[in-house]
Amino acid sequence: MKLKLVFFVLFLSLATVGAWAQTPTPSPAATPGHHKKGKPVVQETPTPSVSPTSTPGPRWVPPPAIEDTTKWVNYRVASLYQNDQSGTNIYSIVDLLLRRRLDKYNVSAEGDIRFQKDFSSSYNADFIQVRTADVSYSDFFLTAAAGRLNVGDPLSPMKFFGNYSTMGLRRLDGVQLTLPIHFSVGVVDSGLQSIDSSSTAFSLFYFPSLLSTSFVNYDTTQSFMLGQARVNASLLSVPFILRFNMGGAANNFYDYSVLNGDLTYSGSLAFTIEKNYDFYCEYGVQDARFSSQSGVFGFGVNAQHLATFGPLSIDNIIGEMQVPLGYSLQNTFTGGNNLATSLATYPQKSWYVEIKTRLKAVNLNLYVTDSMGDYTFARLNNTNALSPINRQPLTQPIGQANEVEGIGVPFVGTGYGNISYLAEVEVTF
Questions:
Q1: I need a labelling partner for 224 at 20 to 30 A (CA). Which of 269, 284, 417, 419 fits?
Q2: Which helix (DSSP H) or strand (DSSP E) does residue 306 occupy?
Q3: In this structure, is residue 388 part of a structural domain?
Q4: Which residues are CB-contacts of 76 (< 8 A; sequence separation ≥ 6)?
Q5: CATH code at 134?
Q6: How close are the terminal C-alpha atoms of the chain, in Å?
Q7: Kind and range of the H or E element at 7?
Q8: 244: which residues sit within 8 A by CB, 6+ positions away?
C-alpha cells in the first residue's frame, strides 16, 4: 500500500512539473485587436492563470467547531457499556461543563456537574457528582486556584496510569499556587539557541485529605502537601515537559502509600514528535521508606489526528504499560495482604489501550485494560486492609481506581491477563 502511494505521489509530481514546463500560449484576451488609423492601441493585460497544484485534500478532518465562542456552558451526553470488576453495567451520563473567564480581573471559574442513571424505565438519576468546582486568579507572576481541582494533567502526562503521587486520584479538593518562570539557555546571538522555556513553573498543592467521604477528617491530621517543579521547553526543535513531584502526609495511615507520614516522589517526561505523536513516561515511589517495594514505572504513546474515511475519523489511539519495580507481599496496593497472607499476590505488568473514533460529530470510544488498580486506593478491600479511622476491616473503598481519559470513569480489570472493556457513545456541544 505504501509503495503504491509513493508511485502515486511521484506521478502527480511529474505531471505537475510537466505542466509548468510547457511553453505558455498567448491568452486570447492579450491579442491586440484591429484598430483604425490614428487611434492608440490598447494593450490588454493578460489575465493570470492559476498554477496547477498537487496538494492533496486533508488526511484528517477535525470535528465541527462550536460556532458560539461566547458560550460558557457546554454539555456532554454519553451512553456507556462497561464490563470490568464491577460487573456489566449500561448507563447514561449528562455533564454540564461550565467555564467562565473574566479577563478584566484575570479571574476564571469552572465547574463540572455530572448526572448519571442506569438503563431503566426510571427517570431518577442514580447519583449527582460535582467533579470540579474552582475559582482561580492568574497574573504574570502568580496563579492561584482553590476548590475542587482537576490535578490530573498538571501532575502527570499519563492518560490512564500515573498520578502516582496522589494514588491515581485526578480530582481533589484543595489549593494550588503556581509561580511561572521564564528562561532561555544557549547562544542566542549566533542563532544557536538550544533550549527555551515559556511556561516553566513551580507549583504547590495543599489537600486537606485524600480519603473518601466516609473517612475524611478536616482537622489537618490527614493533610497532604505536594510540590512540583515543571520545565516546559524545547530542545533541538522537539518540545518536551519535565515534571518532578515531591510530597508528604501529616500522618502515617498506610505503609507503601503516599499517606505514609514521610515522603513520596515521582518524575515524568513527555515529548512530541511530528506534532501528532506524544511519547511520555513516569517513575514514582509512593513510600520513600520502602522505595524498592513501592516503585513503579509507566510509559505510553498517544497518536493523534490519524485519518478520515468519509464520515468516519480516527482521532486518537493511546497505549500505556505499567511496570512494577518492586515486589512485596506486604504491599496491599499491589496485591499484598496483611490480613490473610495466603491470599497475597505479587504485582504484574498491566496495559491499557484507548481508541477514539468519530462519526462526524459523534464520538465512538473504546477503552480496554487488564489493570487490577495497582498503586491506587481502589486496591484496598475488606479482606486485605484495615480502616484508617478505627483499624477495623474496611467496609467500603477509601478511594477510586485509575480513570479512563476524557470521560473520567473509574476502570478496574477482573484480573491480570483478562480483558475488561468500556465502550462509549458521546456527543459534546
A1: 269
A2: strand 295-309
A3: yes
A4: 93, 94, 95, 97, 407, 426, 427, 428
A5: 2.40.160.10
A6: 37
A7: helix 2-21
A8: 228, 229, 230, 265, 266, 267
- Give the domain extent around 103: 73-428
Contact call for residues 398 and 358 (beta carbons, < 8 A)? no
377 contacts 397 by C-beta, under 8 angstroms: yes
Beta bridge partners of 285: 265, 295
Q: What domain count does the chain have?
A: 1
- The reply to whether 348 falls in a domain is yes
Residue listed under C-alpha cell 481541582: 149
Lookup result for grid cell 547562544: 187
Measured in degrees and rounded to the nearest 5, phi and psi for residue 425 equal -115, 125
- Nearest Cα neighbor of 371 from 343, 347, 399 is 347
- Tens of pLDDT along the chain (429 residues) come to 443 443 443 444 434 434 433 434 444 444 444 444 444 444 444 544 444 444 454 689 888 776 555 678 999 999 999 999 989 999 999 999 998 877 677 888 999 999 999 998 888 998 999 999 999 998 878 899 999 999 999 999 999 998 999 999 999 999 999 998 865 554 444 443 444 445 789 999 999 999 998 899 888 999 999 999 999 888 888 899 999 999 999 999 999 999 999 999 999 999 998 879 999 999 999 999 999 999 999 999 999 999 999 999 999 999 999 999 999 999 999 999 989 999 999 999 999 999 999 999 999 999 999 999 999 999 999 999 999 988 888 988 899 999 998 999 999 999 999 999 999 999 999
Identify the burial level of 272 via C-beta atoms within 10 angstroms of its C-beta, where 0-12 means exposed, 13-18 middle and 19 or more buried.
middle
Evaluate whether residue 58 is within a structural domain.
no
The DSSP 8-state label assigned to residue 29 in this structure reads: G
Distance CA 263, CA 261 (A): 7
| Alpha-helix runs per DSSP H in 128-282 | 152-155
Residue 171 in any domain: the answer is yes
